[in-house]
Amino acid sequence: MNNVFREEKKYVITKDVYYKLRHYIAQVMHRDTHSEKNHYRYRRGDGYTIRSLYFDSLDDRDFHEKVDGIELRRKCRLRTYMHDPDFCLLELKKKEGHHQKKSSYRLTKEQGKRLIAGDYQLLLELNHPFLLECYYMMMQHVYRPKSIVTYERDAFVAKENKIRVTFDQAIRGTESNFDLFSEQLQENDLMDATHVVLEVKYNGFLLQYIKELLEEVEKDQLSVSKYCLSRKISKNYVL
Predict the structure, then answer these.
(1) What are the Cα distances from residue 49, in Å, to 25, 46, 119, 146, 156?
(2) With contact defined as beta carbons under 8 Å apart, do 107 and 180 qualify?
(3) Is the pLDDT of residue 195 over 90?
(4) Full set of structural domains in the chain with CATH
């Protein structure tokens, strides 16, 4: 079980800006452990591959709260790293503006498949307070799998206080197949291939030298949701 409290900023930048920023950030920040192990390994981008399956209520309340700009909102997902797909993380993100709490619980691949199939009894069997919270939320509002998103992430961590800077690209997804662990999943591109999503995650404050590196993209700050992008076909959502 892991809890993370932080603030988050997101930007959509071009590939040219990405290459320039990554060059400078690599001089002053460390790659995260996933990037160090798996850099150069994948065809579609730098870094490592992340895949998430998103759950939402029968009436898509999480989607609509995000699109409508509701201040207090949540997001429920199963996340896996494709270089090690034998486990997944059940994650619940609670957000209030830029502030968020992310809670995660590690599950086996087989346990993840049970949740995807709608067997939420698993959460009661494991009998953990966080999983019980997820169970009551998912049962009360009739949560079901709604979409999958896959992307390549290049990530850096500041030595001083673990500020994270991530670059996500080759963002693709599907609303028709929920096989989270498949290596042959057919997905559609969700963003223009010439763009990259930059995320800056920190707790309390940003170090000055990171602020300075990000000055040129500050005007490009957006509230980008990969989950909303993944619903672009059924919901006619446009960035």
Answers:
(1) 20, 9, 27, 20, 15
(2) no
(3) yes
(4) 2-230 (3.20.100.30)
